[in-house]
Amino acid sequence: MVGCNFAIRAVRSIVDKIVQGGSTANVCALDMSKAFDRVNHYELYLKLMKRETPNGLLELLVSWFSECYSCV
Q1: How high does pLDDT run on average in the chain?
Q2: Cα three-residue angle 19-21-28, rounded to 5 degrees
Q3: Residue 2's pLDDT band (boundaries 50, 70, 90)?
Q4: 54: enclosing H helix or E strand
Q5: At what angle do helices 55-66 and 41-50 cross, to 10 degrees?
Q6: How far apart, in whole angstroms, are the C-alpha atoms of residue 57 and residue 44?
Q7: pLDDT tens digit string along 36-59?
Q8: Which of 35, 46, 31, 41 is nearest to 62 (CA)?
Q9: Does residue 48 contact residue 61 with C-beta atoms inside 8 Å?
Q10: What is the pLDDT of residue 72?
Q11: At residue 22, does pLDDT exceed 80?
């Protein structure tokens, strides 16, 4: 299992290569580990649809939450 430090190094390496090539890199991070653990996901999707959230973002969220699992 790889951790957060590995992910940070990987992103940093990619961003450095992009910047060295003369381009601009925009990075966005989202920690959802506790954000929606007690939310009815279907209700969340409906509310996001009513607010006209872009379909691509909705599809991404559905994909993430349909494949999430937890273990204690």
Answers
A1: 82
A2: 35
A3: low
A4: none
A5: 180
A6: 13
A7: 567 788 898 999 999 999 999 999
A8: 41
A9: yes
A10: 47
A11: yes
